[in-house]
Amino acid sequence: MIIRITSDSGKMPSYETEGSAGMDLRAFVDESLVLKPGERKLIPTGIRIELPPGYEAQIRPRSGLAVSNGIGMVNGVGTIDSDYRGEIKIPLINWGSEDFKIDSGDRIAQLVVARYERVQWQNVELLEETKRGTGGFGHTGK
Asked: Is 99 within 8 Å of 36 (Cβ atoms)?
């Protein structure tokens, strides 16, 4: 379920192509915003959502903005939990070298809805051995 915060607020998230996994989220701002190089801002979308239990909404950066303008998300990927009811806001950062202007309606992020499992941890003395073991952080080479 989805709510637009005001009758003229945020556009509905939408899939841009038949094979898109993520829906584009758009900025909803009263006036243009400028992200200066190195600056970060929380950009409103004008929408709120309700997810069923067992689902999350993953907020991801748009690769086109990253490659063309150096625009990313401060936290890389964000999670909206099924019990969150506030406005979706996107924490953007300008990693580029030029000012970046954001207008209302600009596509600023993607939303992917995914099912998840909750686990119960069991405290043990040993973990099952694997071929990989504790190797990580590039241990397999280039």
From this structure: yes
Residue 81 inside a domain? The answer is yes
What is the C-alpha separation between 77 and 44, in angstroms, rounded? 16
* Tens digits of pLDDT across the chain (142 residues): 888 887 666 678 999 999 999 999 999 999 999 999 999 999 999 999 999 999 999 999 999 999 999 999 998 889 999 999 999 999 999 999 999 999 999 999 999 999 999 999 999 999 999 988 888 777 677 7
- What are 45's two structure tokens? 């979308």
In which domain, by residue range, is 69 found?
2-7+22-115
pTM of the model: 0.85
CATH for 89? 2.70.40.10
Strand partners, 10: none
Q: How many residues does the chain have?
A: 142
Q: Tell me, what DSSP letter sits at residue 67?
A: H
